[in-house]
Specification:
Mean pLDDT: 89
Number of strands: 0
Strand content: under 5%
Largest sheet: none
Low-confidence stretches: none
Helix content: 55-70%
Structural class: mainly alpha
Shape: globular
Order of helices and strands: HHHHHHHHHH
Oligomer: single chain
Number of domains: 1
């Protein structure tokens, strides 16, 4: 039951994240993702064979930490109407969508639990809030190609920004090394998740 809830909620949260990027890119003047069918809640266009299926399946079979990624949303910054602000808004759209969903689920959790929601509903709400917070704050880590790196790049001088973006070619390797070999560092970077979950718990206690 736990696995049956975890996977669909994670998939829905990731899809929402990617759709938000594509939708905001269209608003900023770039139709690339829209033309490729990425503004859809259908998960198939967003799945990456290696990152969404093979790697997570192998890690799950090994009983370790599940790690993966979706297919990046294609963006052509040359189409943006307001560079660099358009690029920043597109980069942060996925994070905002996950934080928004976590906030919505939190607002619903209090009254639903007060009305005696079942254990399945309680578990689903907990996963939905926690996974969306993880996605939001993980993507804020300033390691290219994560979303937070786009903001940092625009704060750097052009030469430094170019070298910084080049790290994105090895970004997945760096992130996997961080997850598996330096879990303590990852826990520190994700400390805001724990702080926010504390606020969520306080909100829910108000309804008891």
């Amino acid at each position: 039951m736990v696995f049956a809830l975890f996977v669909p909620i994670l998939l829905a949260s990731v899809v929402l994240h990617e759709v938000a990027h594509a939708w905001q890119a269209r608003r900023e003047g770039d139709p690339t993702a829209d033309r490729l069918g990425r503004i859809t809640l259908n998960p198939l266009p967003h799945l990456d064979l290696m990152g969404s299926l093979i790697v997570p399946a192998i890690l799950y079979s090994m009983g370790g930490l599940i790690f993966g990624w979706a297919k990046p949303v294609p963006v052509d910054p040359r189409n943006f109407r307001s560079h660099p602000w358009s690029d920043i808004r597109v980069s942060l759209a996925g994070i905002v969508s996950n934080l928004g969903l976590a906030a919505l689920l939190t607002l619903l959790a209090g009254p639903l639990l007060a009305l005696g929601a079942t254990g399945t509903v309680r578990t689903a709400l907990g996963y939905g809030i926690y996974l969306n917070l993880i996605l939001a704050f993980f993507n804020l880590i300033p390691i290219p190609p994560l979303d937070g790196s786009h903001v940092v790049a625009h704060l750097l001088p052009p030469g430094a920004a170019r070298r910084y973006r080049e790290v994105g070619r090895y970004g997945i390797v760096v992130l996997m090394a961080l997850v598996f070999f330096f879990p303590g560092a990852l826990s520190v970077l994700l400390t805001p998740v724990d702080w926010t979950m504390g606020l969520v718990d306080h909100w829910i206690r108000l309804w008891r």
